[in-house]
Amino acid sequence: MAEQDNGVTTGNEPLPNGADTLPQVGLISQYVKDLSFENPNAPAIYQSQQAPEINVQFDIGAQQVAEDVHEVTLKVEIRAESAGTVAFLVELSYAGLFGLRNVPLDAVQPFLLGEGPRLLFPFARRVVADAIRDGGFPPLLLEPVDFNGLYLQQAAAREQQGDTGTVGNA
Length: 170
Hints:
By secondary structure, the protein is of the alpha+beta class. The protein has a domain at 29-141: Bacterial Protein-export protein SecB (Roll). It is built from two helices and four strands. It has helices spanning 105-134, 147-169, and strands at residues 24-38, 53-66, 69-82, 85-101. Helix 1 (105-134) packs across helix 2. The longest helix has 30 residues, at 105-134. It is elongated, with a radius of gyration of 22 Å.
């Protein structure tokens, strides 16, 4: 129902002047922002028979770059060591430009820090696997990550810390 009995429009119907008020989100572009692969102990590392220990770290950042356009950057850092010797280091910053129009303010940050990285991850995963393979190692296929769940966990932790601080000050 586009109108209520009093003639007022409800919800997200288009306005009479043709303006679109529906929330819209789109991926404009995605790209490698920075990529580094280091193999500091070649060629000796290839003679190691021990499987490397692999440490993977993620960092997510978002910034507004234009009206209705935000850049989300997914940073992946991987360090592989075998018998205390660095096998390889990978640092990737993979970014995407997202267009957001008519999105409620309380939904922007969850999208940019949860859903945005989820959309970028498969492509970043491929770049990492290819870089490691091109470095002479078996490709590393990163396990899927629940970025939305991580965002919700961190938001709940921040809220709890805020509540704890409020209680302590009361």
